[in-house]
Amino acid sequence: MSAKRPQDRPEPVQVIKQRRDAALAALVGRVPYAQFLGVRFDRRGDELTAILPFDDRLIGNPMLPALHGGVIAGFLEIAAVVELGWSMLWDEVESGALDPADDRMPRLPKTIDFTIDYLRSGLPRDGYARARITRSGRRYASVQAEAWQDNRDRPFAQATGHFLMPRRPGDGDGDG
Amino acid sequence: MPPNDTPEPSKPSRRRSREEVIRMTRQFMEALPHAKALGLEVRSLGEGRAEFLLPYSAELVGDPDTGVLHGGAVSSLLDSTCGAAVICHPENTGGTATLDLRIDYMRAATPGQAVIARAECYHVTRSVAFVRAEALDDDTERPVAAATGAFTFAAAS
Question: What superkingdom heads the lineage (chain B) (predicted)?
Answer without folding.
Answer: Bacteria
